[in-house]
Amino acid sequence: MNDELELLREWDADAAPFTGPARARARHRLLNAMAHADRRTDTGPSRRRALRLAAAAVAAVAVTGTGVLVGTDGSDEDGAPGTGTLRVEIAAATVLNGAATWEREQEKEPVAPRDDQFIYSKRIIKETEQKTGKVKTYTDEMWDSVDVSKPSLTMELGREMWEQPAEKGGGVWPPRRWSELKKLPQEPEQLVMAIVSLGSRPDGRSISDLDELERFEAYWLLGELLKNPLLPRGLRPAAYEALALVPGVKTIPGVRDSAGRTGVGIAHTGRGSYESKYLIFDPVSYEFLGFRDERTSTTGKKFIQLSHVVDWGIVDRVKQRP
User: Fold this and answer.
1) Contact status, residue 320 vs residue 303, Cβ threshold 8 Å
2) In which element (H, E) is residue 290 found?
3) Which pTM was predicted?
4) Which one, out of 15, 34, 55, 99, has a CA that is 20 to 30 A from the CA of 64?
5) For 89-121, how does the pLDDT look when each residue is reduced to its tens digit (9 = 90+)?
6) DSSP string of 136-181?
7) What gap in Å lies between CA 169 and CA 137, rounded to an integer?
8) In Å, what is the CA distance from 142 to each residue of 160, 192, 304?
């Protein structure tokens, strides 16, 4: 996973369902574009913009979604076959289900935003250059149009960027409209399958029927949903429980968040090094603490990024704060 930047994609909910081969080709194109966009650099389009462009390109051929997460290799740390997957997934499920319990104890009924409003969020990013150890801290803010009909303003490592309104019939993931968020099921397995089947009709399968790419897809989309600071009551804990059901998650103990707190990481094992990007939770209460990510500059410098949200709210215009 990355920091709080959202993966945007345009899709037509009224489009006719497409065939399995068409879905596979579209997913392959999008995941390939995502893999290249993920190598964030100091110049050129932002990750947020690059992923929106990649998604828009695939939407032209009727893509259904994007993804993140695949399974484990089925071996223990000492190489003994057959035991590692079960041990790893039980540990990850304990953290994620614990996070769902913590969230339910804290959450209150939120105020629903109007379609003409903006979702404001502020995050702190602590970035460390791996070679020199030099640390720089950024405070980034976002103003996201709820119905995506107005320009949205976002910051990435201190730089302001405008996101233009979506074209007619377009949208974003995760959705910002309250009516769309309310339609998402809160039963964990149903939530996984609803997200995997975005843009097509559910086919009656279960999570155990998902192939490797679809598991990757489910993990990514659920993670992006959790980055939304404002969700209907019950949806965030349901998303944590849904993540616990998707095969391939792994715990990374003894990590640190952007505030210096010790936590446990939850990573995916499906693309690249799973130890480079993960969510961070308190190891006792399972409260969600933040994200870890990595980037490489155009000059080859490698950076570790730790981030967390410090404020959010509903506002009526760009640059207004709660």
Assistant:
1) no
2) strand 288-296
3) 0.71
4) 99
5) 569 999 999 999 999 999 999 999 999 999 999
6) EEEEEEEEEETTS-S-EEEEETTEEEEEPPPPTT---SS--SHHHH
7) 38
8) 9, 27, 21
